[in-house]
Amino acid sequence: MKYTELTNKPDMPAIQADILAFWKNENIFEKSISGKKAGEVVFYDGPPFPTGSPHHGTVLVSFIKDMIARYQTMKGFSVPRVWGWDCHGLPIENQAEKDLGIESKNEIENDIGRFNDACLDIVSSSNEAWREYVDQMARWVDYDGAYRTMSIGFMESVMWAFKQCYDKGLIYRDYRVTPYCMQCETSLSISDTRESDSTRPRQDRWVIVKFKTESQVDGKPVYILAWTTTPWTLPSNMCLAVGEEVDYAFVDMGDEIYVASKKTLPQYGKIFTEAPVILKECKGKDLAGLNYEPLLPYFADFKEQGAFKVVTVDYVDAEDGTGVVHTAPAFGEDDYWTCKKFNIPFVNPVDNRGRFTAEVSDFHSPKGEKNVIETNSDIIRYLNEQGKAVLDGTVEHNYPHCWRCREPLIYRAMDAWYFSIEKIKDDLLKQNEEINWIPETVKHGRFGKWLLGARDWNISRNRYWSTPIPIWECDKCSERIVLGSIDEIFDVSGTRLDNLHRQYMDKITFACKKCDGAMKRIPEVLDCWFESGSVTFAQKHYPFENKEWFDSHFPSDFIVEYTGQIRCWFYYMHVLSVALFNKPSFKNCIVHGTILADDGKKLSKSSKNYTDPMQLMKKYGTDAFRLYMFQSNAMLLGDLNFNEDGIPEMFQQILLPFWNACNFFISYANIDGFYATALKEPDSDNQLDKWMLAELFDKTQQITKAMDAYQIDLYIEPVVSLIGGLTNWYIRRSRRRFWGSEMTADKKNAYETYILF
Ligand SMILES: [Zn+2]
Ligand SMILES: [Zn+2]
Known about the structure:
The chain is of the alpha/beta class. 37% of the residues lie in helices and 20% in strands. The structure holds zinc ion (2 copies). The site of one zinc ion has 7 residues, from loops.
């Protein structure tokens, strides 16, 4: 028998294509998970949006998932792995709006069914691109059996989970200030504003305005100055907040007196000149209770009810702005609570599209052309004309944007449904101790700290394409009922649904038990993170089906995603599994770093700062591409500035020498007629053999130790070093041993050592 001869110039992409075809034709992946095994290793795959396109980051995470699963397979375990799709949510809805040419939510409301059908079309049509990548990455995964968050089974499990949480007292409705997207017309959660680059620099107009108080000094009227970067909130100003112990200065401006925090005066040479004449100083608490005239007339009537006065709070920074916080209760969390505390009336003159209502007559445009942010310049101009603005300018600051439509967000008070993180926080922290984080620092670092600071979760969205919140309320009394399954819906309504999306769920109404009113579903749908957080049980339609499967597959042995998921997928899975089962949902959690463009910027499809990974894998072969990534800092939370030239280097430095080593062996073995029928360690006295075998043993141990502990960053170095030892040292020194036509004992030992690679 002879070994197949190799060429000197391997065409890696072509070789790979052959191997992929072989795997496919022989169902190698399926065989790897079936049959008698040492046991099963459980893995959950995080679901991507089907509309997203694969980039270097998604390729890296696929490589890592595959590498761990293959390692466990080599150790004799079965590692079933099922792909998943995150089918709901804003990205899909935005696409549907574009496809249908929809401009306002009214158009959707008129026919939610048509809108959701369009979403369904988008989700159903765009999955094939990923398959090609999955294949080219040489990743083994059950792609056809993928779970979908929009399937009826998945959604029913989510309904069940919601009801469980509700019954445990974890769900409540509240009126609060939340981040709000005017374009998507929905509230968002705090973590939405922390999605990758949601908070980023933006230029905004700022203005310092003067509020005329009812007080005078030396017969001159006293004005309090306040600075804001959201001039659009000024029409809703209801009070001014100052710091109790902050020092304020009364500055003589000739006919008038301006009041501002003393520490801020030097910043405003343009207002106060270099040497302001300070008539008087006082603490913030001395200003408390001072009344002032409304800056704009729209809500002047509220004066009698306690508006337009100075109050003291503990969040004023003496050096920020003018040390006075202009307060509009509907548009800031601090503002909201402050007004509540001091019984100051609440006004909210901004509609769902982010347009001023008719109450704010000067800036209300009947056709709603401008959202409130777009009116900033108009408002500043108007205040200047009225002599109420003292100074204005432009500032670049970090500002939250909608993570999907990329428009700037506003903060706005509205009704929303919340999940009480506060109530289960102790358990969240306790169960985190059970998780093995890789790297270890994440446990008490990024994840632990995130848990500590986590606030109640806004789980409702004022949207359409997601799991409807299964709460029905009476239109006459306060009766409320939560339904947690298709059967429960049938029991109260007599209708058996085979689709749980809004166009069907909203039609379910039934009589109130307490009065003659009708029970109607609340309009909100669930935040899609509630769905992805439910992957552990919902992918198998638990608890309606597969109870045994779930009991033996929860928690998972390992999951892998990039750092961004610490506050997202990892977090939401943890929240739901602790809330429902009081357990973590994963035993080992591997967090890898971020891949950036060559210049350190974020990879972006629109700025075309990276080559499609498919092209690179086809050009250089996937092995070189994978090696390049595995040798990078991105394996351990670091960033990799992706440089394409690194890929052929991997081929030249590692893969080709290894190929040549194999080639060398095959040529000589075929000449000598050496053919190993079984692998065994030779009993050789040769120092080179002894050293090489020791190296092999040592490196194998290192690799095993690293991989058993999921320390993926420690795995590649011993592999590369072993190949280096073989090619640079062992072969060079042993070359002569293969010469000559006789099969000596030494030559045989050399072959037997060599073949072990
Ligand atoms: Zn948006
Ligand atoms: Zn009722």
